[in-house]
Amino acid sequence: MKIFKLLITILFLLPISLNSFAGPTGQDLGDKWCKDVKMHFYAGGPEAGGFAGIVAAGAMNAIRDTGADAEILYSEWDFEKMVRQLRESVGLGVDAIAMMGHPGDDALMPLAKQAAENGILMTYQNVDPSGVRARFGGGYVGANLATQGKALAREAIRQYGLKAGDHAIVMVPVGDYARAQREDGARIIFEEHGMTVTVLDGQPAFASDPNLVIPIFGAALNANPETKIIVHSGSDVMNVAEGIAKAAGYGPNEILQVGFDTSPQIMTALEKGYVHLTSDQQPFLQGYLPVLSLCQTAVLGTGAINQDTGAGFVDTNNYKAVKALADAGLR
């Protein structure tokens, strides 16, 4: 009887889809083993966007490898648009959704509830809506944002000898703390170290048009000429690090610029002395693993994949080891 009760408990804990899919007939899953699973995958940014493009490349490779019947959706980093698109995805009755967590628990909760009631599998990437997952399940593939920014700030202090009284400018997406905790973590560590910090509001629109930040940083640097370090809010913004420095009158290595992610532009900026340190969160995996996770759960009944994709730091000493992959849009 105890064993029976245990089995029942395990069954209730496993993610279950109300849709039925053709199960494998042997240990070799074969080609296109996920072809019957209709899926929507959210890449987050614009279709031609740097970070979103790498995420989408990961998803495309996983779609090819699994044969999933999947569509990639782009949202221009507009959180309200993400919610509208998610509402449409749920309404269409797809089998599975890989969702960016940026809108946060409050916005996602009612749609995750509706998806669960309709037997739609969900998993999340890039930003973890932990409250939603605690209630309705689903995996998370992405960096641990709560610790990533703090680790970046500690590494910058260690590498560059930053000291109490030094000034930093940190761009934080103020209106969305689920997302903002990464950059705000850097602020917290700098202030605990005795540094002074100017916070700039990193609006989502900046990721779609990063040139918008150049005059904003210019004004902040003009007001704080003693600034030693800038923390950027993502690769799309850090892609214009050279433009930020030059517009404010700084040459190579005259002001430290650090942030998150890699890209061809960031590799070039590392070479030229306009970017100095970045925390790599491997966006390709944030595309590939959610598709694989949903396919495995739908076809094999396995639990969701949870993966911290934070891979450590890329700086002026080691960037050549990942440059070819970053230039290819894979890292």
Concise overview:
The protein has 331 residues and is α/β, with parallel strands linked by helices.
List keywords for this structure.
single chain, Rossmann fold, 331 residues, 2 domains, six-stranded parallel sheet, disordered N terminus, 47% helix
Q: Could you explain how this protein is built, in words?
A:
The protein is an alpha/beta fold and 331 residues long. It has two domains: 18-23 and 35-143 and 282-310, 3-Layer(aba) Sandwich (Rossmann fold), CATH 3.40.50; 145-280, 3-Layer(aba) Sandwich (Rossmann fold). The chain is built from 14 helices and twelve strands. The protein has helices spanning 2-13, 50-66, 79-92, 105-117, 130-136, 145-160, 177-192, 205-208, 213-223, 235-238, 241-247, 264-272, 283-300, 320-327, and strands at 38-42, 69-73, 96-100, 121-125, 140-142, 167-172, 196-201, 227-231, 256-260, 277-280, 307-308, 312-315. The strands form two sheets. A six-stranded parallel sheet has the order 2-1-3-4-5-11, sandwiched between helices. A six-stranded mixed sheet has the order 7-6-8-9-10-12, sandwiched between helices.
Secondary structure: number of strands: 12
Helix content: 40-55%
Treating each run of at least 4 consecutive H or I residues as one helix, how many helices?
Answer: 14
Biggest beta sheet summary: 6 strands, parallel
How far apart the termini lie comes to 51 Å
Oligomeric grouping of the chains = single chain
Which architecture of the largest domain per CATH? 3-Layer(aba) Sandwich
User: Rounded to an integer, what's the Rg over CA atoms?
Assistant: 21 Å
Please write the string of helix (H) and strand (E) elements.
HEHEHEHEHEHEHEHHEHHEHEHEEH
> Which fold name is given in CATH as the topology of the largest domain?
Rossmann fold
